[in-house]
């Protein structure tokens, strides 16, 4: 177990053999535990005899869902220690929008570029597929060894009356949800119930100008971090002599820190921590440090930003310091109209009374992948559109072809009509020229008394003038009669 914990501090991709070996070991352990519980007939009979009204099932694997059904507990609530896990959202019928709702284990905000959106889509598909194959399918097979008619755990999960997630709408990425998804982030955290500090720590706080609490939580103890990290943090802390630094073995999560109203420096190690770190940075309440970039310089810069610097405004807050941002968010959480403690109690009593909440189950849980995403409708409309365009193109092609053939026919008719008409025109010109009177050659006038006689002697041409297509051909005059 120590070896797996030390791996959290390493920056390993999911396809690294050490990471795959750790995941395989974890799934094998959970499946083995499920088999041990399912084979423990005495324990299952005891659960059945207790006649529980309500059960809470943890969302890590599928075994608790099967145990609840086998023990004949009438109703149950599915719990998530983080936000809404992707496989639970999928089987509950919550809309999956990878374009702005990244997987819970992805280090990204809800504002993604093309490659991040591609990673988000593939991540959601893989998380749903892996959970079904490694947990739901295998643990269903375990229960069917006891009862061959045992339903598939996925079918049981889809009928879950209510889901409670450890998140809060005020600092969670906005996304589509359902009425059966209840956010109870911060449940059990009551600052009014906080006990006073130990006198020793109270003296330290009173003497210092500022206090920084350093902790990696209970899952990843600080003493297991690499030596290079220890050196970087200690050297950076030494550059702030006016501040006191307290190393705590077990620390609060993001929800607890927000409630205290204190800015953060986050180092995401595993699970949903990368996403939470990005979320805190977007809200302007934290500075992120990457696991592969821990050094004295980066830690010092992060401390300076949180303590003295101001952050550029976000879509949630204008230009404020990190301290002002987190105090404002903390006040919003405290003044939320309905507290998470009240939600847990009220909804638990409601589910225990009414057992099943079929009116909260969306019809999308009964649809397959093609129907859910309307791929059949999109395909049909696309086919109809292509068919209409094809028929329209065929009609246009036919019309243009007919018009072209008609134009060719008219052109040929004009050509056959032009040749005879030109010939007739030429013939008419020749006929007109032949009928034209000859020009008189000599005119002699003779007077006799009151009468005048005009004697006209005509000198005819030997050949007439012929006009052909606008050109005249003049024949030579005959020398006779001159």
TrEMBL record:
The keyword Signal applies. The chain crosses the membrane at residues 377-400. Keywords: Glycosyltransferase, Membrane, Signal, Transferase, Transmembrane, Transmembrane helix. GO terms for molecular function: glucuronosyltransferase activity. It catalyses: glucuronate acceptor + UDP-alpha-D-glucuronate = acceptor beta-D-glucuronoside + UDP + H(+). InterPro entries: UDP-glycosyltransferase, UDP_glucos_trans. The keyword Methyltransferase does not apply. Its EC number is 2.4.1.17. Belongs to the UDP-glycosyltransferase family. This is glucuronosyltransferase.
